[in-house]
Amino acid sequence: VQREMSTLPRVYVTRQIPPEGLKILRESGQVQFELWDSDDAPVPRKELLQKVKGVDGLVCVLTEKIDAELLDAAGPNLKVLSTMSVGFDHLSLDELKKSLLIFKHLVTYSVAELTVALLLTTSRRLVEATHEAKTGGWGTWRTLWLCGYELANSTVGILGLGRIGVAIAERLAPFKVKKFIYTDIAPRPELASIINAEYVSFDELAKQSDFLTVCCALTPETKEICNKDLFSKMKNTSIFINTSRGGVVNQEDLYEALSTGQIAGAGLDVTVPEPLPTNHPLFTLKNCVILPHIASASYTTRNAMSALAANNLLLGLRGEPMIKELKL
Ligand code: DGY
């Protein structure tokens, strides 16, 4: 058995991923794998660089930078990289282009649900409201106290229309949104027709949106695309929501826009850095709701992501097409 084991492809898993994925790897009989057996902290870089030496496959999460240094440390055996994430900004794509297969994956439902929750939490000021109720701020019923903005008759703007943007719009539509608009590198008529969304310029998106939700990937083109130029064109009654990546936002500009009343509020599930230091200025603002990157954190989705990461790794190692492969 020992001898047989040692001929199997070697895989390193950089996190104690949810049980479904580990079970698939364990029961496959196709690989031998080692694991950073913790979910509380990422594997230290030094250890990671040691552990990947000579591996055939790697399963990672978004805390690992997969760059030239790591690929060099892994060496030429490495054929498949499977990331348990839909985001891929932790991967240096230019380096990967040389050889690797990687996949990206489905978090659509849980991200869309959380985005709706964050949007309503921000627009209806729920965090402020529970704080007031708990700490004695709740006096007599007052006519304009804790008023927010409603979705009914609003225009919702989507920055970067993909499956997640569509799923968000589908969930918001029953709130009687008046109009969905979106912008992207180019119109995406097939997706847009599902939600009856109109393609507009970036400027129009800023000007017209009562709620602007960011759904694009972080790439060199989208880095800090949400900056003072965008915020200054938004209405001062508008709500900004980001569940994609913190890097698409210039946080100083956002702070400025929120603290001067340029926009009404922001809900962020993602920041730079993560975790955001507790003394960060954004935490001082009542009109900014910050969540610790939990958009995909439902038991169903995280287990599905784990299973898919494992299955894709096995497919890739067998030389078969992977599910949701990222075409490089
Ligand atoms: C992703 O998949 O990229 C999310 O940010 C975490 O699930």
UniProtKB/TrEMBL annotation:
Keywords: Oxidoreductase. InterPro entries: D-isomer_2-hydroxyacid_DH, D-isomer_2_OHA_DH_cat_dom, D-isomer_DH_CS, D-isomer_DH_CS1, D-isomer_DH_NAD-bd, NAD(P)-bd_dom_sf. GO terms for molecular function: glyoxylate reductase (NADPH) activity; hydroxypyruvate reductase (NADH) activity; NAD binding. Residues 11-325 form the D-isomer specific 2-hydroxyacid dehydrogenase catalytic domain. It comes from the Eukaryota. Signal peptide: none annotated. GO terms for cellular component: cytosol. Residues 116-295 form the D-isomer specific 2-hydroxyacid dehydrogenase NAD-binding domain. Pfam families: 2-Hacid_dh, 2-Hacid_dh_C. Belongs to the D-isomer specific 2-hydroxyacid dehydrogenase family. This is Glyoxylate reductase/hydroxypyruvate reductase. The lineage of its organism: Eukaryota, Metazoa, Chordata, Craniata, Vertebrata. The gene is grhprb.
